[in-house]
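#struct-pred
JK: can someone run the complex with LLP? inputs below
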Amino acid sequence: MAFYYDGYTGPQKFWGRTSPEELVREYGTPLYVYNERILRERCREMKNLVKYPNFAVNYSAKANSNLHFLRIVREEGLVVDAMSLGEIAVEEAAGFDHDHIFFISNNMSREEMAAVIEKGILISVDSLSQLEMFGGLCPGGDICVRLNTGIGAGHSAKVVTGGHETKFAIDLGKIEEMKGILEKYNLRLVGVNQHIGSLFMDPEPYLESMKALLELCKQFPDLKIIDFGGGFGVPYHKLDGQERLDLASLGRRMDELFAEFVREYGREVQFKIEPGRYISAECCVLLGKVHAVKTVYENKYAGTDLGFNVLVRPVMYDSWHDVEIYREDGEDTGRREEISVVGNICESGDIIAKKRMLPEILENDIIGVLDAGAYGYAMSSNYNNRLRPAEVLIQEDGKARLIRRRDTIEDLLRGFPE
Ligand code: LLP
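RT: done, structure tokens with the ligand placed:
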């Protein structure tokens, strides 16, 4: 007898022709498992968001930059952004041309900037000092700027990137000075971008910021690209029935704004968005194993191998991830209880799911952490000298394939000079 508490992966037929138990036997834990079908669906939803033809979806690779994952994203016709030379390197390896990469920088060194210019990749700078740096390196060049219209949104103060309390972008008080620098170096402002923050479920701030940006753009005559950034949220509380973003209505309203702008601007430009989370979060379940169950005074804990070196979001942002339970041999004990699912890192904050009401968890159960594909592996680390996990893809044919091996102890010992 098996017991599955799987309100999401069950109906989704997430596991294809395999199962959590089989995957754990084959690849061990912790394990990031991706479903190719769901990934492709999310790419298509974003591509079909609007009707306006000159529209590009710039996948924000910081959310998940697994090479095989990026290849699928490219096959689906998305382009990418990058914010480091490392991201560019993986994107090149995944087959993206340089004109399909948009470099959205923050505080880069002269050497980095020169290397990106050398590749012919379009750059967006987000301060006047970096605009000066670009002018010095590439006089007469094409450049984009990231603007901050004063509007921000996001699931945590740490990821709100528009408004007054953020290091990002050029504020509206600096536009005239910015024009002076563009003129001084004979630069052509070909694009403007913004990113107000990560994870909105209410589209109003995004639409407001679009209006504000479009209004500003009317004063720049040479624009080819206007990029509104990412932030499209996903329902992390899906087991409680949280609604998805209403993309149909959001897309309609975006199309109206596009049409109005093009009419007034007098010609078409390319409009872009930069979703990271929307593309990558929901196609992934992180699997871990329960190695201990205990009570400390009044609190019950399921001790797993899912430390915050594997998934840092709950610790870093107090983020919620729904949890599933898979038990190969055994039945539902029928008991429901409050329990915290914790990891194996030497800090009390190492909690992946705090005080949840769940079916009783037993030793050797497998825990599935939902929506783990965005900022999951990407933010994992070797803290406590633990090995970063492996990643597996459940292909469209339902079979599993390893797409990144687990770290080894040898990996931990690399890089020390004799
Ligand atoms: N564009 C820019 C310039 C960004 O900085 C980001 C994310 C995105 C697009 C994509 O945003 P998304 O669509 O994924 O919300 N580690 C945090 C999220 C950090 C977001 C950083 N920037 C988390 O785990 O929630």
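RT: quick notes.
The first strand starts at residue 3 and ends at 5.
The mean pLDDT is 97.
JK: thanks, will look after standup
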